[in-house]
Amino acid sequence: MNVWTTPERRATWLGAATFVPLFVWWLGWFPGIMSSDSIDQWTQATTFVFFDSHPITHTAYLWAVSLVWESPGAVALVQVVATAALLAVVARRLTQLGTPMWVSVGTVWVVSALPMVGASTITIWKDIPFSLAMVWAFTELLLAARDRHAFWTGWWGPIRLGTALGLMWAMRANGRLTVVVFVIAILIGLWQYRRTLLALVGSVVAVGVVLPAALTGVLPVTSQPIEAAQVFMPDVAAVVVHEPEALSSDDLALVAAVVPLDVLRTEYACGDSAPLVFHPDYDNDVIRDEPW
Fold first, then answer.
1. What's the rounded mean pLDDT across residues 251-257?
2. How far apart are CA 145 and CA 21, in angstroms?
């Protein structure tokens, strides 16, 4: 079969070629871009010791990839392939909607050539699969825009869209906010398709709620809640460094119980909290024991 016989097929194959610039990013920055959170999650995945401070769905995904190839580069490569595949689908869907093929293909190529996209695609963050799930949901909405009645009277379209939304829920703790608002809007606007909307909601619950719960039950996951005070300690450090007079001696004593003030002043940086909060003298247990 000639893959070039229709504009949709040409758009799909040319869109898939966005793999090339993304793969160049992967080669140039191998094994990928990582932050302190990335290193923490990758360590959990490779040691099979899990904590719920990161979404377990994403950490389990890292673990699964590491079984095939124990390198962060494997994760980055999976993300490169997934991004190119989704961009190919976007090009196809836009062409099906009546957008000129070269505009559709040109759009996804411009997207793939953006440095922010290339750098993000090879970064080992939960934000990347979250974003890929969002693009997947977008491709389903493009299909629905082509023929709303056909999409919503069938079962597979709502199930696919619900699965994509469920992944958004499962990959980021705040993803559920986006998903809940979106699903409510869909239910209100398309209530006449309520039979298949049940499939969408069921898919969201299965992937976004049941899957993480099942992974938590099956894998050796230790609860490690993040207290609000932990989140805001870098902001408190900024006050200690720049406006110490704003804090009382009691306030400073509380801060010093977590991290010695000389260490805080030395390690604090406005653009990166990691050197401070991952310093060996920084004690999160003090906050967890007395969060208030």
1. 84
2. 30
